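Trying the structure run again after the queue cleared.
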Amino acid sequence: MQTAAELDVLRNHVKDLTASGETLALVPTMGALHDGHLTLVREARKRADRIAVSIFVNPTQFGPNEDLDAYPRQLEEDSRLLEGEGVDLLWAPRVDAMYPAGFASTIRVAEVSEGFCGAQRPGHFDGVATVVCKLFNQVRPDIALFGEKDWQQLAVIRRMARDLDLSRPHADDIIGVPTVREADGLAMSSRNRYLSQENRAAAATLPRAMQEAIARIRDGQEVLPTLQMLEDELLGAGFERVDYAALADAESLQELEAVQERAMKLLVAARIGGTRLIDNMAV
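Done. Tokens:
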């Protein structure tokens, strides 16, 4: 596996990897890799000849009171995992390589970025859209793969690619991969490691309560009282706060108070032990 930390080195490696017409997949990550990330790599292997993975803890998507400094960084261990999965290229830039002195541009994707996590974390999706657009322009992949755990992030990236007429990758080649879950149903996340043993056990209430809410909605029960029951169950299990629990159109992310024929998602963000967990499930 080749590793690059400078942009000119990255571009030379990409040129060499694709010189004979091989297709290239990109899996963007912030590191602290777990089986959810490796599932993206394995899916990429099915869809492209070559695989590039980026590891970059992006400061522009963290707010002033968020966990940028504490976010786990384990580049050496991550590199071993990726090499074991047959990854061809690791792009691991420093902050000053991604945002050199004088950097002054930001991409903002309206509408899909404005509710849910966008409302709770002002500026977060501006940072996501900007860094992902830069990664696409740096690596120029044929396809890119993202986990569906952060459904809003996926929607923002697809809209950004479509609105800006990106071709490497095209919006239709931004692949969402289903959420990988622990045995008790909790969505895999690098932040799960922050949880104490007690909070980790209580966190399993989140996917279970979501499944129960979906069953009620499918059974014809009213949406808003069902969402309130979901929130009450999480708070009763030890969650300190529910940032949102909402039913939304799966594509536009418009919040819904009643079921519709189009695809829908149940979206939840809640905090336990100081750790913010997000999840979504199809309804």
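The first helix runs from residue 7 to 17. Worth checking whether this holds up in the mutant runs.
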